[in-house]
Amino acid sequence: MAPSSVPIHGNYHGYYAKRPSVNDPRLELLPSSTFSDKRVLDVGCNEGWVSCEIAQSHGASKVVGVDIDDTLVRGAWRRRRTVWSAQGPPQGSDTAPDATGTSRKRKRVDSVGEADYFPASCAHSLGPLPIPLSNPQLFPHNVSFRTADWVNEPIPEDEGGYDVVLAFSITKWIHLNGGDAALKAFFSRVAAVLPPGGQFIVEPQAWETYRKAKRMDRRLRDMAQGLKLRPEDFPRLLASIGFGEPVRLGSVGDGGFHRPVDLYTRV
Ligand SMILES: C[S@@+](CC[C@H](N)C(=O)[O-])C[C@H]1O[C@@H](n2cnc3c(N)ncnc32)[C@H](O)[C@@H]1O
Prior knowledge:
Rossmann fold, 9 strands, binds S-adenosylmethionine, 17% strand, two-stranded antiparallel ribbon
């Protein structure tokens, strides 16, 4: 992406200084098993805070974060290292004897150390911890990042497909940059990488919020004039592409970040 001083893709730097980002409240709306052993694509991952949280604390087997802005993607790799450096030692192995002396399978979370165990000052003063070779399905090996305009450029990981695709606070930016056609292309690409039963989790921005974005840039303003689709049309559009009725999981976030989170299932 050509560097621009105006974040016309919603490619805000320092985004997670503005919205609560550790124990992200949007993730707390989801059923607890949403990411367990799942392959997840986080479209518009920004600096990777949500991707890292899903990979570390929600049991995903693989998380791929993709963002159009390479500087943000480099920040996401740094975030992965920071989160790893704050993680505590593993609390147990995958199998451990119970009181009867028989081995039983422990919940995998036990073999991942506690998040935020070491204070951030440790990595700050001593440098980040090295990442040892270990289970590829455990944090931090289970999360990686790519730079791409995912609406128009496939990434190698797409070939294997995903079980869950996340689109938090990105539909407005795809819509304003590429019009109704880009939004349809985006939803069709999501349908193409999900098997039946796969889940698409969307946090759409309300139409009223497009107004401020249009003021950012003349091209966005011109594009906005030709838009026919509205966020209220997304369920109908997604139904025509192969998704069931959405389940509205709730709305969270403070001030301008108060938005709904919708869950669609691929039929
Ligand atoms: C407002 S931020 C939301 C970040 C994150 N999803 C969250 O809600 O915590 C939108 C992100 O989408 C990215 N983005 C916009 N259009 C994109 C595209 N076509 N492909 C990949 N990333 C895109 C931006 O660079 C930005 O980081």
